[in-house]
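Contributing new records

If you add data, match the layout below exactly. Sequence lines come first and carry their own label; structure lines follow with theirs. Keep one chain per record. Anything else will be rejected by the validation script.
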Amino acid sequence: MTGMSGEIRRHYWLPTPNPETGAFARHAFRGRRWESQPADTTVCGRDVAMAKPSEVDWCTAPTCLECNGILIREQRGERPR
């Protein structure tokens, strides 16, 4: 994926819990891979705790539609909303 200036912008996906409900969602994060950091900010701007997800987390956590939409718009070269 390339950014507005043509540079390659990498991202990865990771299921993370919602701090208020505990429900998992698969969010996108900037970078090549999860480096075992305890927390980070998602592409959609949420600050979340991070931990190694289980296979069940990967299979059952829905994709964050906001993260997905932002990445699609970036890929198309559209400006952020």
